[in-house]
Structure formats: structure tokens, C-alpha cells
């Protein structure tokens, strides 16, 4: 059942509340109402004023613990909120709303307890017991929601926060790497190599067969073309490499 939204006035405390104090306070909020309910059921038979006095004292402690749970919950919720998913944030909002109602309901329980003691009417006493049972049921449901926030969504779990930060860093590195891949810088651009067009001819080395292995008809034609050219090159090399004629000095004879 969706509870109507309720907003309490913001209260500035004169001191700072430590983080992760909320779970410790919650144990008192859960345990005390159960003890009160057991005492009241026993006192239906015993009808002792001392039991009623103890019950009132425990209800006052429950109110104090409920107020403490409310403010410590605000601190822990604010600390964990940025790291939560959308589903976890919605669950946290519902947890806060129900906690606000339970804190106010603890005062209602005290009011009906005092009213039952003052009037002494049986109908008021029965109504008080029913309100107390509903209050305990609400406390149990609130405890279940708190457990889901921790065990299902990892609220205020340090290791979950560390892993979330590491995942965020990895996502940033992945985005930077993707951006560099999609938009290369000037230094990363490769040079464009002109490839021959279909109209251009590509010269490739052709393996030649020695002349002596060719047939006689082909050998004759090749010799007619190659041999004169080779002879011209040899003659040119001989001319270029020939040393100049040395002039013998004339020796005067007597």
C-alpha cells in the first residue's frame, strides 16, 4: 500500500551524526516494541501496575530510538544516494516515508497507553493493544525493507562503493579510447600511398632463361640482338679503363 507523502520540517542538529550509525539504532527500534507487546499481553492476565510502569518507560525509549533512527537514516541515505540505482533510490524513498510514519506512530502508542491507564476503560485498552500490534508489524516491515537496501542494492556497503568507483573509471577510459579510435589525430593519420591505376602498367621482374638453354632458332635471334650490345659495352669499358700512355722521360747520354 502506497502511503501518502508526508514532509517534516527540517531540523538542524547542533552536532554531526556519524555515518553508519543507523543500523545500530535500528536494533533498539525493532526489539523494544516486541518486548512492550509481550509485557502488555502478559499484563492482561497479571494486571500489575509495575508492569504498566515498565511498559511506559520502554515506550519512551522506543520514541527516542525512533527519532534517532530517523536522523541517522537521513545521514546514511544522503551518503549512499549518489551510488544507488534508480530502483534503489525508489526503495530508499519508500523506506524513509515509512520510517517517518513509524516515528510519529511511536508517539501515538504512548498517547493511547497513557489514555488506557487514566480512563481504565476496557475498550481503550483493547484499542491500545491493536495499535501496538500494528506498530510492531510496521517495524518488522521497515526492517525487511532496510535489509533489502543493504543486501539487494548494496546501500552503505563500502566494497560496493569501491567497485562502483572502479566501474566508473573503466567506463571513462573506454569512452576516451573509443573517441580516439573514431577521430584520429594528425599524428595518427597514415600517409596515403598512390597505387597504380588500372591504366598504368606495373613493371614486374621477369625471370629470364639462360641463352644456352633456349632452342637453336631462338638462340640465334637472341645472339644477333644481345651480342653486339654486349660487345659495345665491353669496348666502352676497355676504353674507359685503359690507362693513359706513359711518356718515358728522355735521359741525356754523354
Helix and strand topology:
Blueprint: H1 22-46, H2 49-80, H3 86-119, H4 122-151, H5 158-182, H6 216-241
Helix pairs in contact: 1-2, 1-4, 2-3, 3-4
Q: Span between N and C termini?
A: 147 Å
Q: How many DSSP helices?
A: 6
Which descriptor suits the 3D outline? Answer: rod-shaped
Mean pLDDT: 77
Radius of gyration computed on alpha carbons: 50 Å
Order of helices and strands: HHHHHH
Strand content: under 5%
Describe this structure in words.
The chain is mostly helical. Among the domains are: 22-162; 213-237. The protein has six helices and no strands. The chain is rod-shaped and about 145 Å long. The relative contact order is 0.08.
Compact summary:
The chain is mainly alpha-helical.
Keywords:
254 residues, mainly alpha, 6 helices, 0% strand
